[in-house]
Amino acid sequence: MPKYDIHLQAGERVTDEARGLIEKYFPEFPLSNLERLGGLLRISLSTSSRKSGKGEDIIVDDAYVKEIQSISIDIDKTTRSLRKLSASQLREFSRIIHQPIRSNATKAEIISAIIRSLSSHDIWQSIANSNVTKHEPA
Does residue 138 lie within any of the structural domains? Predict the structure, then answer.
């Protein structure tokens, strides 16, 4: 975030440009104190790097959940699909699959929890299949 600091020394007169900004945005601020005591005028610029919180026009219902569950074997594809959803849509998805989510969980944390939940069945199946031993007749 770029910023620019204007340091005002005690006894220094505030420039007309700075005076205009201060009077416009801080009309109740006593400029005489700033000129008498000195101070700092900081200008910083920032832009939103976040996308709007609105997800795509996707209805999160049982059918959509089944669609995502059908592709859950491909974690990258599942992640891409879930990233298209807003946080509230992800919470609804979590509710449908009975995956508890903290109320202050970030979107990334919710996606991670959903993917863990969707892939847990496959993981447990692979564990169960690896522990099966064949018994030979005696």
Answer: no
How high is the mean pLDDT in each 10-residue block of the chain (138 residues)? Answer: 85 87 87 88 77 68 91 89 92 93 93 90 71 59
Helices and strands per DSSP (H, E), number in the chain? 6, 2
Alpha carbon distance 105, 111 (integer Å): 10
Question: Cβ(67)–Cβ(58) under 8 Å?
Answer: no
Q: Does residue 75 belong to any structural domain of this protein?
A: yes
Within a domain: 56: no
Question: Both ends of the chain: CA-CA distance in Å?
Answer: 76
Contacts for 71 with CB less than 8 Å, ≥ 6 apart: 77, 78, 81
